[in-house]
Write a structure and sequence with these properties.
about 140 residues, mainly alpha, elongated
């Protein structure tokens, strides 16, 4: 993966993890996992349906955990790469952009820069990170 792809993965996975955690809460409440209640309010319980729903929740939890682990692994790697940046300004902007999830507009406001200057810093940071990344391979 290129540095740009890793950055994109980290930024997208944060949103994806949050959505998946909300979906997991919805699934757990749907099958009553708080108290593990699969009995319907009326009629005959369908054990196949309840087992499938329970297995779906377990599988969903495992997928979410794998996503979290891979995101953490990539975050740690990017943290190490960013620490190798020479320019302190670029390092701070890249840390906030990649690991803290700030948008360029938020970074411009935070550091009192223009948005175009922030984009320039991000581009130069990505180029330097690519160089560092290639030298570590």
């Amino acid at each position: 993966m290129t540095v740009k792809e890793v950055i994109q993965f980290i930024r997208e996975s944060d949103d994806l993890i949050q959505r998946k955690e909300e979906e997991l809460k919805r699934l757990e409440s749907r099958c009553g996992l708080q108290g593990v209640n699969f009995e319907p309010k009326s009629g005959v319980p369908n054990p196949n349906r309840s087992e499938k729903l329970y297995l779906d929740v377990i599988e969903f939890k495992q997928e979410l955990e794998l996503l979290k682990q891979s995101t953490i692994k990539e975050r740690v790697y990017m943290d190490k790469l960013i620490s190798h940046l020479d320019d302190n300004t670029v390092r701070c902007v890249m840390y906030d952009y990649v690991l803290s999830g700030y948008t360029p507009k938020q970074l411009a406001s935070k550091y009192y820069y223009t948005k175009s200057y922030v984009y320039k810093l991000i581009r130069s940071g990505i180029e330097e990170l690519e160089t560092v990344h290639k030298s570590t391979l």
